[in-house]
Amino acid sequence: DASDIEKGTYAHYMLKEMDEQPAVIRNIIQHYQNENGDIELTEGVRSLVSEADRIYIVACGTSYHAGLVGKQLIERVAGVPTEVHVASEFGYNMPLLTEKPLFLFISQSGETADSRAVLVEVKKRGYKALTLTNVAGSTLSREANETMLLHAGPEIAVASTKAYTAQIAVLAILAYDIARANGKKLPFDLMTELARVATIMDSVMAQKEIFEQLADKFLKESRNAFFLGRGMDSYVGLEGALKLKEISYIQAEGYPGGELKHGPIALIEDGTPVITLVSQPNTHLNIRGNIKEVVARGAVACTISMEGMEHESDSFVLPRVEPLLTPLVTVLPLQLISYYAALARDCDVDKPRNLAKSVTVE
Ligand code: G6P
Questions:
Q1: Local structure of 251: helix, strand or coil
Q2: C-alpha R_g of the chain
Q3: Cβ-proximal residues to 353 (8 Å cutoff; 6+ apart), any chain
Q4: Residue nearest atom 15 in ligand 1 by C-alpha distance
Q5: What is the tens place of the pLDDT at every residue in 222-257?
Q6: Looking at its record, which EC class is this enzyme (predicted)?
């Protein structure tokens, strides 16, 4: 429906698409559950994953970052070994493959040339592939054995937002379905928690002015910025850094907190913005130590934490979410901060220089 992709009253597609995220999560819940509230995947998808002894995720850009989270979900919930690869590297750097590999392509558009090239190669070798995409009928969907759709609606802004959260939600559903099939004990009720996540997303999106102020305060005039986190938070930090560099042209790096001392701390000066996520109960004390280290060297700290791990001086505190699903909510402040930083710097948010929505050449 063409009216679906109108900007309406929104200044930018990116803002509209960020706002759609709670509805997308609800849509995904609906599409992937049956009348009894149980997860339902097609028989085709179920038989593909049940045969696999290892999953090889292949993706680019934001979809790759969703893949990093997906690996954690599949390994920790379903217990299936999973690797994540950047598509463009895969061709000449192919890892050792197990006997029954399953290739999992993650692509918003389903048209990214680097991922398509890998799919052609793995099919030539007789391996099976599953594609997670937002576009039914896209090349990666048609050419793989099976498809899982993101149900996120058209994404127009070059900087991907709702596709990322949709990918993570669908990966969680996939991980749960594999776990159930393998008789694993499920850590929590996924569909209930996803519904709660959607409500929390609504509340974050209702507080946009806070992130506009943070962007003005921390990023309007800065040359560079760092994103820190540990575990899940470090993957979301990579996505935060990518968002910021894509649309505001600020040089941004995402690092796991523990790596700080092995290089990036040399770049901390008076006024360097350091944006840190604190949402993981098993590492929150360590990451607090990292914040102290950078502040002692002059950094200005913008800290996004989660209830139960918060400090008085934090910039924003998110309601508590299951540790495996925190990326669905921790990414929102980072998307919003990037958006408002780009606006404050007069950048073309929806069409950043040198970038394309879908890169169809290798
Ligand atoms: C381009 C876009 C990114 C996107 C990447 C992968 O670089 O600008 O936003 O993450 O391609 O795209 P895909 O459609 O395969 O997810």
A1: strand
A2: 20
A3: 249
A4: 107
A5: 999 999 999 999 999 999 999 999 999 999 999 999
A6: transferase
